[in-house]
Amino acid sequence: MPWLDYSISGLVIGSIYALMAIGLALIFGVANLINFAHGAVFTVGSYIGWTCLVALHLPLGVSIVLVALGTGIVGALIEWLAIRPLNRQSRIAPLLSTIGVGLILDQVIHIVFSPTPRALSANIPNWRIQVGNGTIGPIDITIALTAILSAGLLYLFLYKTKLGMAVRATAQDDDAAKQMGVNINRVNMTVFGIAGALGGIAGLLVGLYFNSIDPNASFQMMLKGMVAIVIGGMANVPGAIGGGLILGLIESYGIGLFGASYRNLFAFAVLLIMLLFRPNGLFARKGERHAEPMTGTFVSQSKPVRIPKQLILALVVVALLLPMANQPYITQIMTNAYLYGLAALALTLVSGTVGLVSIGHAALLALGAYASALATTKGLPVGLGLIFGGLFAGIVGTVLAYPAFRLRGHYVAIGTLALGEIVALVILNWTPVTNGALGVFAIPPLELFGVPLYGTNQSYWFVLGLLLVFCGLQVRLLNSHLGRTWRAIREDTVAAETYGISSNYYKGLAFGFAGFTAGIAGAVTAHQWSFINYDSFNLQFSVLILTMVLLGGMGNVSGAVLGAIVIAALPEFFRAVAEYRMLFYGAALIILIRFRPQGLLGSG
């Protein structure tokens, strides 16, 4: 087996991961922020490179410089427009804002260049040099030299310029740097610009290495950079380089042993292992600052809007009577909105009431959907399949998430995101059980113990009934001693544990109930669609649910339902501009975080 080839390949792709990781490490070190828009900047860089090399036929060297300038400007604009206005808000607010920025940039690329991948090549000779049992080509040398040159220029900037010294001082102690006259805003914009330039160069190099660029690659590459900085150390730039190279080698050797379909699974498995056993990274320096807990920062403090019971009852009556209007299209839209409402209820409990920043929420729906679909296609009645899907998602989801309960700060968000990806990748690769990429088809239609529910009106009333039942259960829980305990953990975990509260136990209870709710939603969705695959409940689905919860108000049951109806239903009435839907979601997320972080109905 050509292990030298795998080693060379691993080091080459690891160099690209290192460029991604350096940018993320710089931003985290200076702004204490995970930039979820970094992957989108990577994609912007790949398309600027395509424009330069293919459309304008510019030399490779000139194209690299233009890519760095273009994405550097994009990075600086992200800091100026989406991050700086949030300096006085909770520390989680900028993280959520970068998610919105990433959605917008990705959608702009789709609109301008189309969702179809494009071929990318440069005028590079096609010779190969034999080295042992492996070979090295000009593209390998080009990528390695570009990565080394970029790292060298960054070193000169950080250690040989006055602004670079200001960046290092801010990363070490931003308060002290501010007192010494350092312009923090200028430093932050510079760091975002440098990170953007490095991410854009990485986008161009990946396109050259694989001879194509894909507008859907941003999320995966952002995660690879994130894995690299977790391996090397969150704010450790040299560690980020080492982490990128290590990740590249792990992936390359894993492909050699098990095949290419396991590439991403290895990355996320390494991420979870690092988060659990060495969250500060392999190259963490002694005394390096640890991530601080985000206790009490996820929910903006506000007085929730109290909706009169009479108004709630009137709205329920209107909802029950809606099918009588004989508008099946509207009825179907509202059915989908109620299903989203169930998913939003689960997330608002975990993230709003308990304070766990979950970004992989769609995994719970996937667990419920697959459990019910597989069981019912084997002969289990659909009614029992729905219950089984909910229980499976609640139990398995809690077991998978339990290790993340001990994490703090940004690590919780990263951990839950990794869990969501691992679930999707296991579904993709466990072909004997899940049917792999082909998915599960011919799922039995919705029915309850012999009563068919697949008609438009019957399905609507059934889903509405589920939503009302789970709303009632969650309100009851939140008004109980258990709900008060959850909020105590959210506000200050350390103080709660000082009073004898076992935080992990109560987090597990919350995750179990949320998993059961989300599992039911996923199972019903599977029976309505009659087909699901590993990509049915992806990151965009998780972000969509998060936007609904933020719109209504974190921890607010009524807000979760309102957010689901607004976000899920309103775009359906504007299907003529459906291609701009993700732009709408991203902009809504940014506007909410900026102007109404407590949501329309306030935080619960």
TrEMBL record:
GO terms for molecular function: branched-chain amino acid transmembrane transporter activity. It comes from the Bacteria. It is a multi-pass membrane protein. The chain crosses the membrane at residues 6-28, 40-58, 64-83, 95-116, 136-158, 187-210, 222-250, 262-279, 307-325, 337-370, 382-404, 411-431, 459-478, 509-529, 541-570, 582-601. The keyword Methyltransferase does not apply. This is ABC transporter permease. CDD domains: TM_PBP1_LivH_like, TM_PBP1_LivM_like. Keywords: Cell membrane, Membrane, Transmembrane, Transmembrane helix. Its main location: membrane. It comes from Pseudooceanicola albus. One of its GO terms (cellular component) is plasma membrane. It is found in: Cell membrane. It holds the Pfam family BPD_transp_2. InterPro entries: ABC_transp_permease, LivM-like. Signal peptide: none annotated. The keyword Cell membrane applies.
